[in-house]
Design a protein that fits this description.
The protein has about 425 residues and is of the alpha+beta class. The protein is built from 7 helices and 15 strands.
Length: about 425
């Protein structure tokens, strides 16, 4: 991960520490050039200290924790802290000193305290007081419905994408999903879903997409959200793999869904349809989606439509709640048995590798990539789910097939109680 990013004076580039995700904030130093086209690899990144491997990516996370907190003087000279030992052996303490480093492999010690490590060198010189900014976000022209929704977002054309959408697909809505702040200290407390170290989420709802692929809507402020593009049945065709947020009065716009970054919208003279009207308000989704809850969203469908027949077939998987009180993760028997039919990050059902491909491929994740969708869409023993029940199953599959939607009170969530997250 890239930490301590700083803009280089007189340049469009940035300097950063390439550090371990599970280690301390030390590593190798890199330059980042945002003008270089992203190739899903390292095209925009140049190593400043190539003799030091990237911790955890190219070595163990302890190995390579050598540099930290670079402060650029220009593109060739940097202040930083350095200790050749990197992660000190057990029982020994690191002693990072302040160094002047250049882009040609030279460094010179400026200061080292014999008793405590240095960190974050900052050059000081007289300068003119910078102007005070009263706010960089323009207030929306329309009256926002509430202070929590005093920001707007929009997409010029959802079909503007690096990867083409499946032929014949028509996007009708955007699903807006909040990623919740973690409030428990350890991983998998509770275990949110099938994947390891999963984050909890809440489905805020949907907003319409116009015929030309444009969308314009209010967004709640101060919440980490991501978007999914939905087809006419409400199935996610494309999804973000990161999140974003807005401040009060801010306007956030995208050209498309993962559009080429170094391009402008086509100059066809047409003003996007969505921007000709007032922003749409988010329409809440079905019960059990906010906060997310398998017991409230999916299990009632299984009990209405599936459990009776599955009980009569000895080889059919058990879709009952089971003795979840005895399960260490408080999960239902049905949830455990549906794992091989579900869709989640790391699933072998996906035709791309989600660990090395940082973007989703349209039509190849979530419901559309799940074995359960194949079964239900072809008619399972002549059983056709009503549209409302199918939508619940699809929503679950599109949202990484999670079980819990909050980090607190897993037992109450398993009982089917509504447990609101303590941090939103």
């Amino acid at each position: 991960m890239e930490l301590d990013l700083r803009a280089i004076p007189g340049s469009h580039k940035y300097v950063a520490t390439a550090a371990a995700h599970h280690g301390q904030a030390y590593g190798s130093l890199v330059l980042i050039d945002p003008h270089v086209e992203d190739d899903d690899a390292m095209a925009p990144v140049q190593r400043v200290t190539p003799e030091v491997p990237f911790p955890e990516a190219e070595s163990s996370f302890n190995n390579g924790q050598v540099y930290a907190t670079p402060w650029p003087l220009d593109e060739y000279f940097y202040l930083c802290v350095y200790d050749a030992r990197g992660s000190a052996p057990r029982g020994r303490q690191n002693n990072y000193g302040i160094y002047l480093l250049d882009a040609f492999g030279n460094k010179e010690l400026i200061y080292r305290d014999p008793h405590i490590s240095c960190l974050s060198p900052i050059p000081v010189r007289p300068r003119r007081k910078p102007p005070a900014l009263t706010g960089s976000a323009a207030a929306p022209k329309q009256q926002a419905p509430a202070t929590s929704e005093a920001a707007t977002g929009g997409v010029v054309n959802v079909y503007n994408s690096l990867y083409p959408f499946p032929e014949g697909i028509s996007i009708k809505a955007l699903r807006i999903i909040q990623v919740l702040p973690k409030t428990t200290p350890l991983i998998n407390e509770p275990r949110i879903g099938y994947g390891n170290e999963k984050g909890a989420r809440a489905v805020l709802g949907t907003v319409p997409v116009e015929a030309d692929g444009s969308a314009y809507f209010y967004l709640p402020t101060g919440k980490a959200v991501y978007f999914q593009a939905l087809d006419e049945r409400g199935l996610a065709v494309q999804s973000m793999r990161s999140d974003t947020y807005v401040h009060p009065g801010q306007q956030l716009f995208c050209q498309g869904c993962h559009e080429p970054h170094h391009s402008a919208p086509p100059a066809n003279g047409r003003f996007p349809l969505a921007f000709r009207r007032s922003p749409s308000r988010i329409q809440p989704d079905v019960e059990g989606s906010n906060p997310f809850s398998f017991p409230r969203l999916v299990q009632p469908v299984l009990e209405r439509r599936c459990v009776t027949c599955h009980e009569e077939e000895s080889e059919a998987c058990d879709l009952r709640r089971g003795e979840w009180e005895k399960d260490p993760d408080h999960r239902y028997t049905s949830y455990s048995n549906l794992r091989e039919y579900a869709s989640f990050v790391g699933s072998t059902r996906n035709t791309y590798d989600p660990w090395t491909t940082p973007r989703t491929v349209p039509g190849q994740f979530g419901t559309l990539a799940s074995k359960l969708y194949e079964i239900l869409s072809h008619g399972h023993h002549d059983m056709q789910l009503p549209e409302e029940d199918f939508r619940r199953i699809a929503l679950w599959l599109d949202c990484n097939s999670d079980f819990f939607g909050s980090y607190e009170n897993a037992e109450a969530q398993a009982r089917g109680d509504v447990v609101q997250p303590t941090l939103e």
